[in-house]
């Protein structure tokens, strides 16, 4: 059997592993989501599917199996199916679950290109059109109150209020690539005041600050916009006349990934054929103003945007630490009996020739 997707249940000992193999009939493909318990060192459950599993999302009470044209939600304790969602073609297995809200909340592509389906618990669902083109990235804030979406058009990331599906912010990307699935990852900072956007078509990871008005500023703005005098009328006319571009939120900082060309290509690409990773992956530090970037070149970067918080102009992140994520941990050993590291063997072909190979343990 081959492994196609691995998903960790938060920071626990539980993993969901998607495997592909064959049944008794060699022509029959068997797709499974197997639950691995690292503490017990064994599989503790599995879900089978007749269709290829494109992705998996999970939290302590539910697990979502994502296939290309549907999402099926199961209870985590007994693997009982509770929700079935039809989706538009979803080759990347997009599906997100908010981790800190009750009841559980899930989002995935809807039934048409650009649509997003929001499932709240077992009984409540809503679907809305977020973009004019297909959705390629989704992310929830930690509380599930905010939802970020991006499309293949690759110019704007939208931030929505989950309750009421109100559009709060349009985040304007710098140097987007048109027509390509540019946005590879979206991430909220735990406090939900910042959003990071990574793309496959640019070496830049961009950071956005979600502006919030104080109660006094919000009241003053509401009074101005709803006023009957000349000021209120002028404000409404100007707001309606300005193109959306001028009201979009611009990034306040960015991180340039070393060794990546202007079009997003890297000299070193460690992805296997058909890998689900489309570009850099990003995540915020829980409390400090730091960003972690995992790149498919095999490097993980931790960078700080502390200096950008007080700057009035666009700033590049600083104090970057780079680490090879595939480097062996200290004391790592391969189990079993292996030949000595310096032993040399000859691999001969049919003609009798051979090359010297050194077996390293």
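^ Assign residues to that structure.
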């Amino acid at each position: 059997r081959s492994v196609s997707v691995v998903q960790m249940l938060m920071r626990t000992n539980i993993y969901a592993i998607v495997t592909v193999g064959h049944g008794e009939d060699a022509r029959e493909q068997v797709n499974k989501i197997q639950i691995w318990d690292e503490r017990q060192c064994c599989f503790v459950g599995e879900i089978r599917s007749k269709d290829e599993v494109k992705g998996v999302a999970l939290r302590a009470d539910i697990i979502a199996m994502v296939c290309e044209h549907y999402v099926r939600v199961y209870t985590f304790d007994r693997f009982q199916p509770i929700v079935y969602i039809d989706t538009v073609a979803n080759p990347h297995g997009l599906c997100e679950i908010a981790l800190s809200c009750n009841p559980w909340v899930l989002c995935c592509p809807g039934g048409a290109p650009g649509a997003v389906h929001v499932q709240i618990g077992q009984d409540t669902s809503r679907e809305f059109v977020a973009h004019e083109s297909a959705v390629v990235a989704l992310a929830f804030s930690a509380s599930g109150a905010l939802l970020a979406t991006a499309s293949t058009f690759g110019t704007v990331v939208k931030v929505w209020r989950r309750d009421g599906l109100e559009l709060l912010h349009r985040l304007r990307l710098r140097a987007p690539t048109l027509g390509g699935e540019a946005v590879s990852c979206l991430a909220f900072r735990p406090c939900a005041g910042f959003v990071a956007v990574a793309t496959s078509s640019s070496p830049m990871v961009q950071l956005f600050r979600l502006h919030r008005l104080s109660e006094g500023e919000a009241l003053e703005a509401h009074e101005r916009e709803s006023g009957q005098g000349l000021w209120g009328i002028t404000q409404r006319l100007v707001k309606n006349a300005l193109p959306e571009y001028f009201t979009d939120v611009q990034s306040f900082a960015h991180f340039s990934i070393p060794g990546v060309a202007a079009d997003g290509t890297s000299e070193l690409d460690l992805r296997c054929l058909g890998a689900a990773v489309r570009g850099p992956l990003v995540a915020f530090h829980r409390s400090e103003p730091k960003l972690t970037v995992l790149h498919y070149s095999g490097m993980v970067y931790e960078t700080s945007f502390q200096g950008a918080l007080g700057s009035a102009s666009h700033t590049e992140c600083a104090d970057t630490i780079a680490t090879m994520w595939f480097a062996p941990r200290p004391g790592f050993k391969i189990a079993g009996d292996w030949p000595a590291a310096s032993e040399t063997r000859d691999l001969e072909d049919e003609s009798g020739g051979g090359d010297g190979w050194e077996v390293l343990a």
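The longest helix spans residues 215-226.
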